Amino acid sequence: MQKEEYDLIILGAGTGGVTIALYAASHNIKTALVDPGDLGGICLNRGCIPTKAMLHASHLHKLTGEMKQFGIEISKIEMNFQKIMKRVNEIVLQGRNSLTFNLKNKNITIIKNKGSFISQNEIKAGDKILKGKKIIICTGAKPKVPSIKGLEKVDYLLSDDILKINSLPKSLIIVGGGYISLEFATFFNDLGTKVYILEALDRLIGSADFEISKELEKYYVEDGVDIKTSVTISEITKQKKGVKVLYTANGKNLFQEAEEILIATGRAANTFSLNLEIAGIEKEKNGYIKVNEFLETTDKNVYAIGDVNGKSLLAHAAKREAMIVIKNALENKKETMNFDLVPWAVFTSPPIAGIGITDVEAKKRNIEAGIMKAEFKRVGKSIIIGETRGLIKIIYNKKNNKLLGCFIIGDKSDELIHEFSALLTAEATIDTMKKIIHIHPTLAEIVELLR
Fold first, then answer.
1. Do residues 38 and 22 make contact, with C-beta atoms less than 8 angstroms apart?
2. Host H or E run for residue 49
């Protein structure tokens, strides 16, 4: 069996792995990038990029149906689902080709095989044994499939399968009410599919601020999405034209039928074939790889970043973790990462976004928190563009006025959150926030209405 030695072995060619590989290549570090799948990982191939391309198309479709309020009459709206998906897949291919070109470097060896540990510093990949001074695990996560009676007997979709569908379903049941579920609910609902969401928790996106979550649920119901929370599914059966889900909610036995069913009940760390125990690498109770504040595993020459360590399942978090690990693994430093400062957004309708801690989390940390809010319907630009739904909520420390968190539901919240990303990173106070001058008329003026 062929044996090769490297300064660095990277397991996983997603956002984090590619970021590290490109840095290593530019610094003459001999690197093996090991991944059996497409370069770019979930984000480029089945996640961030394609889903946002889908959502942009569905948003435009929805917008054409609302043109009358602006005095624009459109007599006929035609939607070609195959063309939408063709464009989405072309964008993915373009990104993949660009990445392939960028990774062509004498210092990078791309190995298209699964990698697994055979010792603390050796990886078996296909017919090769790779020995590395440092190893970084960035194998990501995969859709979690719950144990539900009858599920294995029906044709169900996972988030990874959506790009393969070639026709728009008339109706769709989504099991799960997290961020993946709601983005797909937005896409299909905007294109005219009847969407049903079945969520086990008592609200959507349980990790989000409670008020934002409930506001989002209200808007989805307004838009025609059927939502059931506190659901326990007992069985799924195959029907002539689709599936039937039997469940209980609020003490009632109910059922729902639809043409298709999507399972979106979270993600699980991609560690199954890594043989971590051989390298003495421990996992948390939830299955994610255990890391310390420096993103080291229990093997000090092995690091784990991105979804696989469960700290923040976001591509931009993985990208920053990659920069932290570059310093720690390759430059012998001791950098840490504050996960409270990772902004997030869910591209719902309207989108939601946040950064920092909620008032509930502040209470858990024994911080006396203050709250300020403002509504989009009071902002001139919101009225101009016809997007008045939503609110902004900030959390601050009453003791020193320091900003602790910001949560937004409303148009362009995914862009507006960056103002608070900067403020929280700078450890600013609400007094500093109030000094910022916002252009008129813009949605960002909502910050000046906070009370």
1. no
2. helix 48-64
3-state secondary structure of 381: helix
- Three-state DSSP class for 128? strand
Q: What is the rounded CA–CA span in Å between residue 353 and residue 35? A: 32
Please write the tens of the pLDDT for every residue from 399-446.
999 999 999 999 999 999 999 999 999 999 999 999 999 999 999 999
Here the tokens at position 223 are 């838009």
Query: Which one, of 309, 308, 324, lies nearest residue 42 by Cα?
Result: 308
Q: What is the CA radius of gyration of the chain?
A: 23
* CA–CA distance, 110 with 307 (Å, rounded to integer): 21
Domains and CATH numbers, the chain: 2-142+268-339 (3.50.50.60), 151-265 (3.50.50.60), 350-449 (3.30.390.30)
The alpha carbon of residue 163 and the mean position of all alpha carbons in its chain are separated, in whole angstroms, by 17
Residue-level length of the chain: 451
Catalytic residue among 27, 418, 438, 440: 440
Annotation marks residue 440 as catalytic: yes
pLDDT tens for 104-138 read: 999 999 999 999 999 999 999 999 999 999 999 99
CA–CA dist 183, 178 (Å, integer):
9
pTM of the model: 0.94
**Cα separations in angstroms, 419 against 129, 369, 408, 446:** 47, 20, 12, 12
Helices (DSSP H) in 343-412: which residue ranges?
A: 359-364, 380-385
Question: Residue with structure tokens 């990029």?
Answer: 49
- Residues in contact with 288: Cβ distance below 8 Å, sequence separation at least 6, in sequence order: 269, 308, 309, 310, 311
**Rounded-to-10 torsion of CA 8, 13, 19, 20:** -10
Q: Specify the DSSP class assigned to residue 386.
A: T
Strand order in the sheet with 403-410: 344-346, 352-356, 403-410, 390-397, 369-375
